C-alpha cells in the first residue's frame, strides 16, 4: 500500500539518487512530499565533546564556582547560631526530673529552667527553633496520617475524617479534629526566653509567633471550617486529639491564630524530611539599629515540659540563629561549590595537558599523509 | 471404468480406515452421485467468508486484553498494579495503573483500528457479487454465501472468489489465462486447463447437466501443489480423470484473456490456499532485544534484592518497640493483627516502591521507535529504484537495529547479484558456434547436409522445448490484435527469463515461435513457412532434475522428445553426439560467466510413445506420492538422448554490485554466495563482483576433488593451508564448495568417529576465508548453510538476500531476511523482513540505516535503564532515613509522569533522528561498521558503566539534598521545608540531569531536538508550578501545594540545583573527553575530522582506516 501510493509520485519527478544539497532542493521542489525530514537530512548543529571544546567550559565553571563557594562559605560562617539540648537525659540537667517523671495523665505542667550564655551578640533578626532528633516525622504511616480536606475547612471531612487518619480518627465516638497522627503529636512544649541582666533581673524577650508558617499554608491550605469566628460551636461535634490537653479551638486567644490556622500547628503539620529536624518556633525581631537583638550575656530559658521524647530515645533542642540571604548556618553548600569548582579547574588543567599531548599529535599525524 | 472403480475402492478403504480426513469429496452442483456408487460421507465445509480480522465487536476487549497481558512485561506491571490495589502500598495504584492503562489503551486502539480496517476489507470481499449456476440459470450471490460444490461463472478480469476446479472455458481448447499477481506477484499469464471431459460444456445449461464428483486432498497451503481426481458420470458409466495444480484456480488470482469460465468451488473461505498462506511467520528477535531482556533480568534481581535488603533492615530496625511504634505513631488494630503476612506485604510494598526501575514506558518507546523508525527506511529516496518504481519495503520493523549487526551475508547470485536480465549470446551446434548477429547477416553456412539438418533440428528443439507464452499486444481501445498481424506486436512471457532469452535468440536466428493453438505449436521457419508440431506432453522443469522436456509430433508423423537442461543433468543421459566438443565450449562459456544449457533429443517410436503415455498417466493419476512417481517416470523417459548442442545466455551483474560487495567486505562482513548455478559460472560472477580478487587464493572443496581424495583428506589439507598462513602474510582465501560435497560434510556419518569434526573443520576453514562460494545448492541446502553458521560457536548475526522462491527458506532462516524485488516473482519479498529493489541498496540499508538504528536503540536501552536508576536509587537511599517505612521520596504525580512525560520524548526523538556521523561519511567509509559489530554498545562493561553512572548521579542528588536539608534552614525568612520539598528538589535535579545527559549525547541537533529537549524541561517546570499552584479539589491530599514555588524562592535551592547538576554530569563528560583523546574509536576520529569541515581529511582518514582494516 505504502509503496504503491508513493510510486505514483515518483514517476513524475526524475531525480538523482545521490542527494547532494542541491539535489535535495530539486527533489523538494518537485515532490513536496519528500522533505528533508524524511530523508534524514534536516539541517543540524553537530557538536562534539572533545578536550578542546570542553576545556574552556571547565575553566569557566571553575572560575565561577570557586568565588561563589567562597562567598557562600563566608556568609555561612558569619551566621551566629546557638543550640542547647534541654531533653534532660543527664542527671545534672535542669529538666531531668521533668523528663523522668513524665506521665500522660498528669494535668499539671512540669516546668524547668535552663541557663545559658551567649558569647557573641546576635545582630539582626534572630530566629528561634525547636529541634527534635530521632523523631520520624517522615515515617510513611505518619506522613499520610492526616486529612487535608478537614484542615482546609471542609465540613464533611470535619465530621467524617479520612480513613488515612486511623487510628487517630475517632475518639469516644466522635471524629477527631484535627485527625491523624501528625496532629495528635503536636509539639506542645512552651519556651520562654529571658535576658539575665547584670543585676539579676530577668528581662523577658518578646517572641513573635506571626510569620513562622508559610503564607500560603496559613491563608489557603489551612482554613477553619465556617470561618474563624465561633470555633467552639463549629468544633462541638468533634473530639480533641487524644494526646492534646486542649481542643483545637483553644490553641490561642487570637482568632487569627486559632483553630487550624494556628501557626505552630501549621508548622508542625509540614512533616520534616529527615529524622533530625528543626522547626521554626518564634522570631525575635530587631528593635533598634544600634542595639543587637540579643546582646551577649546570660540568658534563661523557661520550658513548660510537656513533650516526651525519651521513650524513643529522642532529643529536644532550642536553637537561636540569625539568617542571611542563604538561610541558616550551612557550610556544606560553600564547601561543595569550592570543591566542585576546584575539581573543574584541576580537570581543566589535566585536559589541557591531554589535549596538547594527544589530540594535536593525532591530527598532526594525519596531515603529512 | 474398471480402473476408476478400483481407485475408488482403494480410496474408500483408505478413507474408511485411518486417514479419511486427508481427502474430501465434492458433488458438483450438489448433485448426489448415481446410486450404486459407494456412499460418501457428506462432509461439512465452511462457507466462503474470509475472516482476516482477529476480533469481533463483542470479544475485542477481553481478547485484546488477554493478548496484551500475555506479554511478560505487561503482565509484570499488571501484577504490580494489583498488588498496589490489594495491599497497603506506599504509592497510589494510579502511579502504575495510569501508565499501564495508557500503554494498554494505545496498543488496543492501534490494534483495534487495524482490525477495523481488516473488517472493512473482509466485508468488501465477502459481499462482492458472484455468479453461480443454479438450475441452469445464473444467479447472483454474495461471495460469502458461496458453498463448496457450487458451479461459478467468472468473467474476464474478475478474480476468483474461492479455489476452483476449472470445468470449461470460453475457449474451445479448454484453457484459460490467469495472472497470480496478487498472490505471488508474478504478473505473467499462466495457462490453466479445464477437465478434458467437461470442457465442452460451456453454457450454463450444459454446465448444469454435468454430473460428477471430485475427490481431492484436504486444503494445504502450498500454492503450487494440488492433487485430486474427478469422476464424471455419463449414464451408468463413470470416468476418472486426474486433477493437478494446472486445473486449480486459486482465490485471489485474476482471469485474463478469456471471456468467461465455469468452475466448481472446492475450497472455500478460510480453507482457500490464499487464506492458509496468510499465517504469520515466526517472530524473529533481534540481538538488542536479547540484551535488553538480559538487562531486565539483572534489574529484576536488583529490584528484588533491594526489596529484600530493605525488608530485612526494616525488621532489624523495628526490633526496638519504641522505634516500631513510638507513642506518636501507633498502628491501627488491623495492622497489628496481620503478623504473618506482614513481612511479605512489606516485601511487596518495597517492590512496588522500587518497581519503576523497570519502566513500563521502555517497551512502548522501543516499539514506537521501531515502528516509526522503519518509515525512514521506506521514505529513503536513495533506496528507490526509478526503473521499477519501487521503494524499500519494511515487513518487520522489529529488526531495524539488527541491520547494524550483520556479520555474515548470504546472497543469491541470479537476480540478486545479477540483473536476471538474460541475453542470448551464442549457441553451439556440434562444435559450430552461432552468434545471432552474424547469422542474420547470413555469413554462417554449413555445407554438409547432415550438419544442416542437425542445425535445423537444434533450432526447432529450442523453439519447441519451453513453456513460454505469447502475449498478444492490446491496443488502447481494447481491440485485440492477433499474432498474425506481425511479429512485432507480440512478446514472450515466461516464469523463467532464460527461456524467453532463448526463444528470442531463436527468433533472431530465423526460427520464430508463433503460438500454441489447439495443442499445435506453430513455428515460422527461415523460409517464412509455418511448421506445426503437435504438443503431446510437457515434462516440466524442476530444480531437482534441472531439465525439462517436451514430446512433440511433427507433421510428418515423427515423434520427438526434446530435452534441455543443465549440462550436468544432460551429459550423463546422452548416448551420442559430439559430447567432447560441446562440453569444452560449455566450460569455456561458463568460465566467462555465461549461463549454459544443453539441448538433446530422442526419436520416439509409436510403441515407445505408448509406453511413455502409460507411465505418465499412471503417475499423474496417483493421489499419493504423485511427485515422486512423476519424477520416476520422467527419469525413465529422459534417457538415451542424442546431444544437439548448447546455448549460452548472459546475465549481467547488477549495477554497483561489485562496489556493494567491496563495501560489505570492508565493513567486516563475510559475504557468501549461495547459488544453484554451476561452479564455473558462479566463480566468474564472483570475480566480476569482486568477491574474489586476483590475489585471492581459491580453495576448492568440490566433487571433483573429493573424487580424487577422500573428503577427510581434502578437509584436513585445506585447514592446514588456511592455518599455516594464519599468522603470516595477509593472503586472503576464497572457498568454493558445491552442494554434493556440502551434504557430505553435513551428513552425520556413523562409520567415522570424526564425522562430528567435519562440520567443525569446515567452519574453521570458512572462518578464515574472506569469501565463500557455494554452488549447485538446492534451496533447502541454502537454509542449511545459514543454520550451520548461525549455530556456530560465536553465534554470528546472519543476513540472507535473495529474489526468488528458492531463496525463501534461507531468508526465513537467517536473522535478517532481505528480498530483492526481482523478476522471479514476489515470494522472496513477501517472506522477507525487508525488501529492496536492487542489491546495491543493501549498502545503504546496512551501513547507514543499520548503523544508525543500532546506535539509536542501544542508547535508548542504556539510557532508559540509566534514567530509572537515577530515579529510583534516591528512593532506596531515603528508606535508610525514614525508618524503612516505604515512604516515597517523590510525589505521586512525579512518580507517574517521570517516565511518561518528563523524560520520554527527548529519548524517543533521539532514537529516531540521531546521527552521530554524517550519513555520507558512513557510506563512504564502511569500516565504521566495525565499530559497532558484535553488539559492542550493549556489552556488559558498557551496561555496568551506565548503571554505575546512574548510581553515582543518584548518590550525588540524594546526599546533595540531604546535606542541604541537614538540620538547617535555607530560606531567608527562616521558615522550614518539609519532606516533599526535599523530594521535589531531588526530582528537579534528576529531571534536569537526565535530560542534559541526553543532550550531551546528542550529536545531531535539529530544531526538533531543541524543541523537544528544552520543551520537556519547560513542561516540567510549568507542570510543577501548576500542580502546586492550585488546591486540587479531586485530590485527598494537598501535599504539593506551593512546594515547588517555595523551593524556587530560596536562593540556596537554586545554587544547589546548579551545583548538583554540574556534579552529576561531570564524570560522564570527563570520561567521554578523556576516552576520545586517549583511546579514540574510528568513529570518534571521523567525528572530529568531520567537524573541521575538510572533506579531504575525512577521506584520507577513511582510507587509512580501510587499509588498517584490510591488514
Q: Can you describe this structure?
A:
The complex is a heterodimer of chains A (369) and B (1111). Chain A is an alpha+beta fold. Chain A is built from 12 helices and 10 strands. Chain A has helices at residues 2-12, 21-30, 51-78, 96-100, 140-143, 148-151, 155-159, 181-184, 215-221, 231-234, 263-269, 331-366; strands spanning 81-85, 110-118, 126-133, 170-171, 174-175, 190-196, 202-204, 277-284, 297-305, 315-322. In chain A, the strands form 3 sheets. A 4-stranded antiparallel β-sheet of chain A has the order 1-10-3-8. In chain A, helix 3 (51-78) runs antiparallel to helix 12. Residues 1-32 and 361-369 of chain A have low confidence and may be disordered. Chain B has 1111 residues and is an alpha+beta fold. In chain B, the strands form 6 sheets. In chain B, strands 16, 17, 20, 21, 22, 23, 24, 25, 26 and 27 form a 10-stranded mixed β-sheet that branches. In chain B, 47% of the residues lie in helices and 18% in strands. Chain B contains 39 helices and 34 strands. In chain B, helix 12 runs antiparallel to helix 29. In chain B, helix 27 (808-813) links the parallel strand 32 and strand 33 (816-820). Chain B is elongated. Chains A and B meet through helix 1, helix 3, strand 3, helix 5 and helix 9 of A and helix 12, helix 33, helix 34, helix 35 and helix 37 of B. Chain B: Component of a P4-ATPase flippase complex which consists of a catalytic alpha subunit ATP11A and an accessory beta subunit TMEM30A. Chain B: Its EC number is 7.6.2.1. Chain B: Residues 130-191 form the P-type ATPase A domain.
